[in-house]
Specification:
- Helices cover 18% and strands 20% of the residues.
- The chain has 317 residues and is α+β, with helices and mostly antiparallel strands.
- It has a single domain, classed as Sulfite Oxidase, Chain A, domain 2 (Alpha-Beta Complex).
- The structure holds the ligand Nc1nc2c(c(=O)[nH]1)N[C@H]1C(S)=C(S)[C@@H](COP(=O)(O)O)O[C@H]1N2 and molybdenum atom (MO).
């Protein structure tokens, strides 16, 4: 029997809302069944248990502009996309089971010497700062949040790439025991994303290790995740364990699932609709009104130059 299963990513946001209300209730019931551990997580993140907690808050860097009202912390940390846990938005409670220590990041490919580095060791080498960035999900919801972390460029320099690699590829942890979504073989796990090297070296490109002046919550991609704010949210791979430098352009998670809808470049453009819905407007989390979406999500003055010699590429989807 052939069952046509409708996947989460095939549901536009306006429809997904009712779906997530239903799924949210189901997830809650499941979490309650787990008893103590799941219910013991009272709030959003147990920041005081995190060995990096004393590093935050950090100095805010605001040269990339002001962006309007910051989204309520509660919303940004309880409405998430993290398909490794579930396809609905209510995974924050389930995500508390993700073990984030010890955490090792493996660096490979075109580098002086491949190596592994523990997360806290990495953090000690990086210049921490806070950046308030806009985030635009391809499903049309958006938010404005204060990330803490370091420029991607600092990480690339630590990795010492050699031979002029064209791309950097990043992958999320594989752990189907803790992340039940990874048991679904219809998805091309592990979640993989990549940037061209000049994108990775751009000032805006950030690795977030914190959020709202605290260590980043697990549901948002602890202990480290990518933030490239001029691109659709799915580029921002969470819980990174591997970084590879290569000349071969990676095929990212969503691109593998549906390359006609989710491309490699995925730059935000209100004039280029998704094949199944418009990208002209967005709905900020916590607001009922839609607002216009901006070219490169409002960062055109910083990043448009990256693409002047790439006009033949499908830059906006
Ligand atoms: N590993 C992994 N990374 C991921 C995702 C995911 O499902 N798995 N979802 C992406 C999508 S679609 C978005 S919009 C953002 C959401 O980040 P947030 O939950 O911190 O808001 O994470 C991105 N990174
Ligand atoms: Mo997204």
């Amino acid at each position: 029997m052939l069952i046509r299963r409708r996947k989460g990513w095939e549901i536009p946001e306006r429809e997904a809302t009712s779906e997530s209300v239903y799924l949210g209730r189901r997830t809650l019931v499941r979490a309650m069944g787990l008893g103590g551990i799941a219910l013991a997580a009272p709030g959003v993140a147990l920041a005081e248990d995190d060995p990096s907690a004393s590093k935050y808050p950090v100095r805010r860097e605001d040269r990339f502009g002001a962006h309007g009202a910051i989204t309520a912390e509660k919303l940004a940390t309880t409405y998430n996309n993290y398909y490794e846990f579930d396809t609905d938005k209510s995974i924050w409670r389930a995500a508390q089971k993700l073990p984030i220590r010890p955490w090792t990041v493996k660096v490979s490919g075109k580098v002086e010497k491949p190596f592994e580095i523990g997360f806290d060791d990495l953090l000690a080498h990086m210049p921490l700062e806070e950046r308030v960035y806009r985030h635009r999900c391809v499903e049309t919801w958006s938010m404005i949040v204060p990330w803490s972390g370091f420029p991607m460029k600092s990480l690339v320099e630590l990795c010492k790439p050699v031979g002029d690699p064209k791309y950097v590829v990043m992958q999320t942890l594989s752990n189907p025991k803790v992340m039940p979504g990874q048991k679904d073989i219809l998805y091309p796990w592990p979640y993989t994303e990549g940037l061209a090297m000049d994108e990775a070296m751009h000032d805006l490109t950030f690795i977030a290790t914190g959020l709202y002046g605290k260590p980043i919550p697990k549901q948002n991609g602890a202990p480290l995740r990518l933030v490239a704010p001029w691109k659709y949210g799915f580029k921002n791979v969470k819980s990174i364990v591997a970084i590879e430098f290569t000349d071969k352009r990676p095929v990212s998670f969503w691109e593998k699932l549906q390359d006609s809808e989710y491309g490699f470049w995925a730059n935000v453009n209100p004039q280029v609709p998704h094949p199944r819905w418009s990208q002209a407007t967005e709905k900020p989390l916590g607001s009922d009104a839609r607002i216009p979406t901006q070219l490169y999500n409002g960062y055109a003055e910083f990043v448009a130059g990256l693409y002047t010699n790439r006009k033949a590429e499908k830059l906006f989807m």
